[in-house]
Amino acid sequence: MANTVTPLSGFPERLPSQRIIEQQFLDTLREVFELHGFASINTRAVEPLDRLGGQGEDADKEIYGVSPVSGGGGNDPAMGLHFDLTVPFARYVLENAGKLTFPFRRYQIQPVWRGERPQRLRYREFIQADIDIVDTGKLPFHYEVELPLVVADAFSRLPVGEFRIHVNNRKIPEGFYRGLGIEDITIVLRIVDKLDKLPAAAVRDRLIEDAGLAAEHADACLALAQIQADDTSFADQVRALGVEHPVLDEGLAQLSAVMEAAAEHAPGLLLADLTIARGLDYYTGTVYEIRLAGEEGAPSVGGGGRYDALASDGKRTFPGVGISVGVTRLLGLLLDERGLTASRETPVAVLVAVNDEESRRDSMRVAAALRARGIPTLVAPKAAKFGKQIQFADRRGIPFVWFTGADGDQVKDIRSGEQVPVDAARWAPPAEDLRPSLVLPAARE
Amino acid sequence: MANTVTPLSGFPERLPSQRIIEQQFLDTLREVFELHGFASINTRAVEPLDRLGGQGEDADKEIYGVSPVSGGGGNDPAMGLHFDLTVPFARYVLENAGKLTFPFRRYQIQPVWRGERPQRLRYREFIQADIDIVDTGKLPFHYEVELPLVVADAFSRLPVGEFRIHVNNRKIPEGFYRGLGIEDITIVLRIVDKLDKLPAAAVRDRLIEDAGLAAEHADACLALAQIQADDTSFADQVRALGVEHPVLDEGLAQLSAVMEAAAEHAPGLLLADLTIARGLDYYTGTVYEIRLAGEEGAPSVGGGGRYDALASDGKRTFPGVGISVGVTRLLGLLLDERGLTASRETPVAVLVAVNDEESRRDSMRVAAALRARGIPTLVAPKAAKFGKQIQFADRRGIPFVWFTGADGDQVKDIRSGEQVPVDAARWAPPAEDLRPSLVLPAARE
Predict the structure, then answer these.
(1) What SS3 state is found at A409?
(2) To bridge B369 with a disulfide, which of A21, A260, A265, B424 should be the other Cys (CB 3.0-4.6 Å)?
């Protein structure tokens, strides 16, 4: 075995204290997803390569192939690691359609792999947390209203600071362009999508030259793509541009419904944002993008939208709406860039000191009593001097040290130094000390 | 995209109701591991191939290689999917040794991959749940006593029926063989390990012919390998064979200490079992094997032992003790063979009915109030007839349906038919209905 160990670029791993943060994030996402009625599924890491190829907007993702080192594999198809959770979910729905109940609400929290060049907040292995609602035949619109509220509920419980879910609706630009008489909707959507990389003037030039738009139509498209509002007033701004089309009407009504529900259930968390263009050539209704305040230079921490066909088996088509949260990227921002830390590097709330090796059993008995009441407890590794045992707890952030004794037990809060007589059948730490807590550094000046 | 979908043999996937069982098992393992002071780590799925090769007893596992489909990969070493969690853990310890605090207690619950031919209870992708305690330099013996108690605590909380953790100690056969004057300990251990495949007479022949033992020494080795006891009386049985050696004394004392602690903390759950030979050529002290009662024909659902060198960086050596639980195999036994099921296929405890689409918001408000108090709640997908909405809940196993009304809300337990007036700010389902429960079919006659 080689003794040298070099980290692999793009495959982030966490120290135990950081992993505690990751677990709390994953727990919160799961808890909220379940509160909102999503059922968990897990799919295998590999898919046949022919299923991974040519999948919508992610067709250009670099795929990792998987094959037995010895060259075997028998009749198995060529396989690769999944690069997102949508492709395996589509396959899972087709494979199990007869056993699932629709509308099917699932969440899925798993790693995905992409053979891309690693760079800031882009990884080769990273965790995605997806929620989707799929139905057979026709998917009611109200799910497009509901989905961002689920994500808003989850993010509201995470120490991410201010965030907003930006929402748009494919039908707004599509109806608007049609109202202008534009025929090739897709090319215009793709050029407008460059607004985050190119200056507006350059985009305008391309709309005129590449898409053949009249100058005033190009200006109208750019004006549309600049509208933002935190309420339904975006619709008035669109109307003021003077374009009319039934598809535009439908899009404005749908986005207004999303904003109205958000005003009640998630006030201030949604932004009607007609500048969002990413995925508009793939999604067919509402689109979502999750952004942290103050991270304008960073890629979004999640997104999704409504699609007409997640999958089809030739007879049935499965439309749906979904949002994917980039958990590893979110943690990259919060841990590596904002300095989020955990109050300790272990789940342990109480260290039971050991007087001497002969009485280790007494300490084990105390630990068993505390664990039986749900208190994570550790027995000290050595019957060292008490100062050393306290230091052992201190180095790990364990808040309490327990001492057994012939004339009764005592527990010490090593932060305050306070020490009190206790009974292992009754004492519990304060609720806030039971689990590690997350600590954000004071706001940077 | 291909529309045909064929399951991949050896890559088990679960329906939502089965996944609920899997999640509850994983939750219980995690909870108990944390109660006992183990910290979570997750490692990347891939390791350099040269690190995966030649790793102790697993050297013959078929490895899945991983490489970018396009042929790129730059300066990255050739990589493969890990086939267990020990190899990545050893690498993680070396890579982060300066940042970890020792003794380091970690648990790790992740999938692993092996390119083997799938057969009953043997998979190509499966979840392992490992706990290990590693130290630098010297590892105190008491951890070998502690570790099986952690697993016994976890299994006692799972609906696995009767189980036992079989324990042996490498020092017992080693000391015994030395006491007989045998020099090549390893070859004898390996031949005795065949006892579960070959008749005793055949093993005896090989001990004489291949290992060169005198007939009475071969008989003594076989006698030793038949000793079992659920208390410390195994030591008397060994002594009665009349062999003496200091290493044998040490082994008997250690295994006795394990059995004594178990008598207090996990009565009836451990079996001193000198028939265990698997891994004795790799482990250096206590060895463990977890077995479900009535599954003598099945492979064990977990095991582990004490090892002198998890890893070494040339300067420091890291000894440890660990146990690995085969979660996917355990679930294969319980779900696929014993028929363990969940009471519902969704986390949802309450379905809020919808009177008409105009009042969907009222139903959403009720759902939000219930969720805010931790009750998984779903709003009905359509304002269908109430009978249909109740049927929707029934098909999924959702126990309660909530009706909103101008003259107050009511909730119906659709199992009993009982319907009572309720207030969304106060009502909660009985604790046993809040989460899906696990159901074992009545014992087979």
Answers:
(1) strand
(2) B424
